[in-house]
């Protein structure tokens, strides 16, 4: 009876002894309720999500490598590099160390994939996973990231607002990325020639970006107008439509 909630139930029982089943319900509910710390539950949940994230990213990364290994352009380049480094010659051994064609083929495939991993920088959603990107480390490092952002923001205000310095390449690309509402990983996945086009057109200037945005929207409309799939869809919407209601009697 030292617990306040339990004491209230006890006093209520003394005042209402006729509510027999209600007293038993409250008694066993407190006795059988799980005594688990909420902090432990949250920690276990975050760890489980982090493990799932990490293995899911590894799976996506391996899928990207397998796909690139099947593309002739990258496969030929990787095979040529492997031959220059003498890696493919080691797979064809004779005598006691001779292996089956299947084993040789599997080893050559692994060599080609390793070269693709080392030579090609995959960006975006299929990039190589990093331990610091999972949820657990993001939560632990949140204060550090926040302090880093505050310092960076103060530096930006001091350099470009107070002192009026000109933007560098990184600063220009940052402004363009913010205008496009893209994440850092999405922007990094763009080709270098696309970023060069952004800089040539001076898209860090708001007026230039608005012109570029309208051009892209018009180009997208033209492509959709010429796309036969969109033509069929518009024809279907015009003739049938999704779930049209009518008041015509059968």
TrEMBL record:
Principal subcellular localization: membrane
Subcellular location: Membrane
Gene Ontology BP, a term: protein folding
Transmembrane segments: 38-58
Entry keyword set: Chaperone, Membrane, Transmembrane, Transmembrane helix
Annotated GO CC locations: endoplasmic reticulum membrane
Protein name: DJC25 protein
Taxonomic classification: Eukaryota, Metazoa, Chordata, Craniata, Vertebrata
């Amino acid at each position: 009876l030292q617990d306040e909630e339990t004491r209230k139930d006890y006093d209520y029982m003394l005042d209402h002894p006729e509510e027999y089943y209600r007293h038993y319900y409250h008694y066993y509910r407190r006795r059988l309720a799980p005594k688990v710390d909420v902090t432990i539950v949250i920690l276990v949940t975050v760890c489980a999500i982090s493990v799932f994230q990490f293995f899911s990213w590894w799976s996506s990364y391996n899928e990207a490598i397998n796909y690139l290994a099947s593309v002739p352009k990258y496969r030929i380049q990787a095979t040529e590099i492997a031959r220059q480094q003498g890696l493919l010659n080691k797979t064809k051994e004779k005598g006691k160390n001779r292996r089956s064609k299947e084993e040789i083929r599997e080893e050559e495939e692994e060599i080609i994939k390793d070269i693709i991993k080392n030579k090609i920088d995959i960006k975006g959603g299929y990039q190589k996973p990093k331990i610091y990107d999972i949820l657990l480390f993001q939560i632990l490092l949140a204060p550090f990231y926040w302090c880093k952002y505050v310092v960076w923001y103060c530096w930006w205000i001091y350099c470009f607002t107070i002192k009026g310095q000109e933007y560098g390449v990184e600063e220009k690309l940052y402004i363009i990325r913010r205008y496009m509402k893209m994440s850092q990983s999405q922007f990094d996945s763009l080709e270098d020639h696309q970023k060069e086009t952004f800089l040539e057109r001076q898209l860090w200037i708001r007026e230039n970006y608005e012109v570029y945005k309208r051009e892209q929207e018009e180009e997208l409309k033209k492509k959709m107008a010429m796309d036969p799939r969109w033509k069929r869809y518009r024809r279907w919407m015009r003739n049938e439509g999704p779930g049209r209601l009518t008041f015509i009697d059968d």
